[in-house]
Amino acid sequence: MTPLLERSLARPGKPLGSLRNQLLRWLLIPLMVLVALDAVSVYSNAQGAADIAYDRALLASTRALAERVSVVKGKVVADVPYVALDSFETDTLGRIYYKVTGINGELVSGYADLPAVPANVPRSQAYPALVRFYHAQYNGEAIRIAALLQPVYDDSMRGIALIQVGETLDARRILSNQILFDTLLWQAGMLLAVATLVWFAVRLVLRPVLRLKVDIEMRALSDLSDVDPSLVHKEMRPLVMAMNGSMGRLQNLIASQRRFIGDASHQLRTPLTVLKMQTELALRACDHDHSEAAQLKAIVQAMSATVDSAAHLANRLLMMARIGHGGEGLEMTTLSLREIVHQVALEMALPAVNKNIDLALEAQLETMVWGQALLLHELVTNLVDNALRYTPFGGTVILRVTPPSAIRGALLQVEDSGSGIAEQERERVFAPFYRAASTLERNPGGTGLGLAIVRDIATLHGASIALSDSASGGLTVTLAFAQQG
Other C-beta atoms within 10 Å of 168: how many? Predict the structure, then answer.
């Protein structure tokens, strides 16, 4: 590769655009130039051939007239009958003029003012006769003249007579234009045929590349396996091999991050669990030993709350990290949404009883969705946990599962009788660590990650999420799953 080409390829700037279009341009534009040059050459050669043919006919007319020139009684005469003269003077495609000049330059017959032979016109080498061809102007028209030197003699004299026959260029121009039109028509047809063949050829050659593009686009997010280099042309294989190497490095990086998430989960949860157990033991000891127990119990309770908050935050951060990698390692399948919601309702029954909250489940019909069981369980848990946290003592929380219909997919609704969220804050609460003003009053130690996790899991499952006011004045979270094909 030349340095100039390397610099042009390496130079940053606007995108290169379509490979197919560039190939077509680089193939068809030079082809069009070559066809144009070929058309000019063909036209020039055809015009030269036409001139030779018309000059030969013009010479034949001159010779026919020369045969009628003779010497009679010491004078050069031209025996041109009226019919012959008429055939010389008129033509269907133009006019013909003639002139016969005697030995001494006298006019014998024809048009006296027909232009004379220029001095610098050479004799034609194409014919054995002493003939010269030249262009001239006559009566305001361009004409082509053949001048033939014809020997004449008798017993009394001998010399050279000059016979000139000229014709207008109308016939030649008509023939030249016809040749040009036929040439351009033929070349245009040939160019169109070649362009069509080139277009199909480029499309056929690029088909493996386009098929490779479609195959890569159809891959799952977690599929980083190598692409078979034999699927593309030899020139493209280094690119495919480089892409395979890049995906291999990316796969190693993801595996390393996955191991980090698992290790971090273990390392965070273990000491937090131990610390939680120690605070519970300390609280039990405080219940048995009343000396300075109140102050010590308050400190340990604060520690326990902090541990709960830290464990809750660690779990949610780790869940967000897993979701951020597209739920890698978690298999998507057809699941019962009613079963998942029922399981979460059982798990959250105790917190609901502790706050005297009526936790109801409305799910009469089986409802199947496409998703990942662990992530959907986490999604429902976050929604129910938020509802229980921000619903006052003695309130209600309703879990509602609606099967899909002809115009929509399955619906999951969590409705509470809490303080709700102001309409102007409903878009912002999905941002990580953002907390609405109404939630800060009821749960100052929250993390602000619950709805962010819910949104990310919903996006991963192709579902939409909306917030609205509930019938009891609280909040209703509606999750709409996509219709199954």
Answer: 19
Distance of CA 62 to the CA centre of its chain: 69
Mean pLDDT on 126-150:
87
Which tokens is 160 given? Answer: 């050279």
Per DSSP, the chain holds a count of helices (H) and strands (E) of: 11, 14
The DSSP code sequence of 431-465 is: STT---HHHHHH-TT--S-HHHHHHHHHHHTT-EE
Give the C-alpha separation, 65 to 148, whole Å.
10
Which of 389, 411, 388 is closest to 400 using CA atoms?
Answer: 411
HSE toward the beta carbon, residue 449, CA cutoff 13 A = 16
CA 261: distance to chain centroid? 39
State if pTM tops 0.70: no
Question: Which value, in Å, is the radius of gyration of the alpha carbons in the chain?
Answer: 51
Q: Which residue has the tokens 């050659």?
A: 205
Digit-coded pLDDT (tens) for 64-96: 888 888 888 778 888 776 445 454 544 445 688
Smallest CA-to-CA distance from 411 within 419, 420, 402, 399 is with 402
- Average pLDDT of the residues in 231-246: 79
What are the structure tokens assigned to 183, written together?
A: 């040439």
Distance CA 261, CA 192 (A): 62
Tokens, residue 411: 């619906």
Residues 6+ apart with CB under 8 A from 323: 375, 453, 456, 457, 460
Residue with tokens 């199954």: 484
User: SS3 of 318, please?
Assistant: helix
Instruction: State how far the Cα of 88 lies from the Cα of 84, in Å rounded to an integer.
Output: 6
Give the span between the Cα atoms of 423 and 468, in whole angstroms: 8
Provide the strand spans (E) within 216-373: 333-336, 358-362, 368-371
Six token digits for residue 121:
């016109």
**Are the beta carbons of 387 and 355 closer than 8 angstroms?**
no
- How crowded is the C-beta side of 53, counted as CA atoms within 13 Å? 10
Q: Going by DSSP bridges, is the β-strand pair 158-168/141-153 parallel, antiparallel, or unpaired? A: antiparallel
